[in-house]
Amino acid sequence: MVVIVVSGLPGAGKEEFVRVAVDKDFSIIRMGDVVRQHAMDLGLKMGDLSIGGHANSEREKHGKEIWAVRSMMELPNGNLIIDGCRSEYELAYFKKNIENMITVGIEASVETRFHRLVARKRDDDPTTMEDFQRREDRELGWGITDAVNNAQIKLGNDGSLEEFRQLCRTTLQAIDSGGY
Predict the structure, then answer these.
(1) How confident is the model over 89-145, as pLDDT tens digits?
(2) Domains along the chain?
């Protein structure tokens, strides 16, 4: 069993990495889904400011690793992707509690990520550059840069979708064969 913890700013390509991993029989825990579900359970409005504010508030109340703790409450058996690590604190929690773990950081330019998020149209995605920058500043404030920069494997994603999917397949194959 291997656990891959994935970090990257919104729109970098984490979801594409996850899709490729699912094709290779990995189970998935999306930390963002854990946050959104927690917010829904509390009856909060879905949207970037509400969800992001809730995520931040919970970090302040319960510690900077709270979403890592909540994400690990029900770990499935077998190979696993934990998608959406946002800080060195979450990363440290995972390292302390997972034996066979590899970290992957996914990077893409600001322009690329902005256009992807606008096209994605999820409830918490920005529709303007101002909204994007507000979200970006919040994510950077959580320490996501440290999580990406300290990843064992870094993947760049400014090319085509198929190029990135092939890079993901090659990376997952190398991890599976013990090449990392």
Answers:
(1) 999 999 999 999 999 999 999 999 999 999 998 887 899 999 999 999 988 999 999
(2) 3-176 (3.40.50.300)
List the one residue out of 40, 31, 26 whose CA is nearest residue 71.
31
Q: Rounded to an integer, what distance in angstroms lies between the CA atom of residue 40 and that of residue 45?
A: 7
Terminal CA-to-CA distance of the chain, rounded, Å?
14
- Answer yes or no: are the C-beta atoms of 82 and 3 closer than 8 Å: yes
Angle at 121 between CA 119 and CA 124, to 5 degrees: 130
Please state whether 80 falls in left (phi above 0), alpha (psi between -120 and 50) or beta: beta
Task: Using CA atoms of 126, 32, 80, 86 in order, give the dihedral in degrees to the nearest 10.
Answer: 80
- Alpha carbon 114 to its chain's center: 16
State the pTM of this model: 0.91
* Distance (Å, whole) CA 37 – CA 33: 6
Question: Around Cβ 81, how many Cβ atoms within 10 Å?
Answer: 24
Phi, psi torsion values for 113, nearest 5 degrees: -65, -40
